[in-house]
C-alpha cells in the first residue's frame, strides 16, 4: 500500500521511502513538499516571494528538507548545479514568479549547456491572472523553453505530485538536464489529494537503447587496426560514471586519452596515457594528437567549437567513432563513421569486452611509433609559464601550488576566464568529479554559489573555488549564505585586476586597446579582504610569490568558516597554448607568436 515503483518505458525509478502514502488529503503546496520528500530530496536552495509563499509554509515543517536561503536566485540555480555535480543527485532550486524566476535563467541555461540535472520550481501568478500582465508575472515556461530539457506549467493541484516525479525522472535520466516546474499560486493553495503516481506516462521519452553490438564491434576493430588513435573523452563519461570502464579501455588499447574541459578528472592526469585537455587552450600534445590521428573515438563529447577549432580542418586524417547517449549529438558537427547511441558506461564496457576477446587470441594494437611522436610533442612543448621578474605572483604558480598543496581529494570549482583555464591546466585531477566548472555557457559568477552547493552536498570534502576578480564580483553575496548556514568553502580569488580573458583578446586582436576591461585593482574597490570580513568569512591576502604556500596552508587550517584568499597576481599573464577562435587547430601557438614545429606523421 505504501510502496510504489514508478516505471517509464519499463525503467523503474527508485521507490519512495516506506511510509509515503499513496493518497492523502493535502494542499497543492503540501503535496509538492511530500513529493520532494518521496524523491529523497534533502536540500533545496531558494528565495521566497508572493507567488511561491504557499509552498514555503509547508516547507517550514519538513523535517527532511533543508532549505538554504540564498541571496540571489542565480546563486540558488548554480548551487543546485554544484550540489548535483558533487552528489550525482538532482539539484533543486526554488524562486518566486517574475523577477525571481527570471533570475534563475542564467543558471538554467548553464545547466542545459552542460547537461546538469536540476529541477527549478517557480511560483506563478494565480491561474486566472495568467496572461493579464499581473504583478510579477513572467512567462517563465516560455522564456526557458529553449534552455530546459522539459518545462511544465501546473494549474491543477492534483497534478503537482506527478509532475514533480516526472520532472526528477527527466532531469536525471538519459542525457541529464534542467527541468522547470512552474506552479500557479492557486494550485499551491487549493485543497487536493496527494497522489503518488503508480507509473509515469511519458510518451515519446525514450531512454537510450543498449549500444548496438555490431557498431561496438566495428569501433573495436578500428581501435585494433588504427595506428594513431585518440580517445576523446567528454563530460558524458563523468555523467555515466564510466571512469573505471575507461581505465580498462585504456589498459587494453594503450591509446592516448584527452579529456575535455567538462571531463577533467575522468581519467587521472598523472597517468602516462593522458595528454591533457584538447582545444583552444589545450596542451600541444592533445591538440596535435587529434590533428594527426587516424582514429578519434569520441566518448560522451560533442565536438564543441572550442575543441575542434575551424571544423573543416579538425582531425583531417581521422575516422570518427562517436558514442553518445543523445542521438541528436551524433554527426551534429562532424560526421561519424561509426555512430553508437548509448550510455557511455555500456558503450565502453562493450568495447572492453570485445577487446578482451581479441587480446585472448593475440590481437592488440601496435602504437609504438605513435607514442614516439606524441612523446616528442610532450617533451618539446610542455605546459609552462613565466615567473614575473619583479617577484609578483604568476597566477599559474598560485593555482599550481594550490593544487599541489591541497591535493587530489578536494573538489575544485572554477569561474570563467583565464583563471579557469589555468585551473584546468595546472591542477592535476586524479578523480572523477573533482573538477566542477561552467563549460558550455561560460558563466561568470558560477564559482562561489556552485562551490556552496558542492560543499552542502559533500560536507566531507574540502571545496576550493578558484575565481576571477571579475567573476567573484558577480555572485560573492552568497558568502553571506555560506557564513550563516555553516558552509565553509574556500575561495581563491585570482586577482589580476582585469577581466583578464577579455583583456588577453584585446592584447592579441585589438592592438592592446584595453576598452573596459580594467577593474582598477590598485584602488581596491572593493577590498576583498574587508569584503570577506563583512560577510563573516576570513579574508587573507597574498601579494608575494614567496608567501603563496604559507597563505594556502593558513587557508587550509581554517575549517569552521568560509575563507577568501585574495591572490594579487600579475596582470599581463596570458593563457597558452592558444588556438585563435575560428582558426584551425593546425595554427596553434604555444606562446605569443610561437608556432610549434609539427613532426611529419607518415
Ligand atoms: C556573465 C558573463 N559575462 C561576460 C562574460 C565574458 N567574459 C568571459 S571571461 C571574462 C573576464 C573574466 O574576468 P575575471 O573573472 O577577472 O577572470 P580572469 O579572466 O581575469 O581570470 C568575461 C567578461 C562571461 N563569460 N560571462
Ligand atoms: Mg581577472
What does this structure look like?
- This protein is an alpha/beta fold and 602 residues long.
- 36% of the residues lie in helices and 16% in strands.
- Bound molecules: thiamine diphosphate and magnesium ion (MG).
- Residues 415-419, 442-445, 468-471, 494, 496, 498-502 line the site of thiamine diphosphate.
Taken from the alpha-carbon principal axes, the silhouette is globular
Q: Termini, distance in Å?
A: 69 Å
Unique bound compounds: thiamine diphosphate, magnesium ion
Please tally the β strands and state the result. 21
Count of helical segments?
A: 23
Radius of gyration: 25 Å
Query: Which structural category fits the helices and strands?
Result: alpha/beta
Whole-number mean pLDDT: 95
Q: What is the helix fraction of residues, given as a range?
A: 25-40%
Spans of 5+ residues with little confidence (pLDDT < 50)? 1-12
Biggest β-sheet: strands ordered side by side in the sheet: 5-4-6-7-9-8
Strand proportion: 15-25%
The quaternary organization reads as single chain
How does the major sheet shape up? 6 strands, parallel
Can you describe this structure in just a few lines?
With 602 residues, the protein is of the alpha/beta class. The protein is 36% helix and 16% strand.
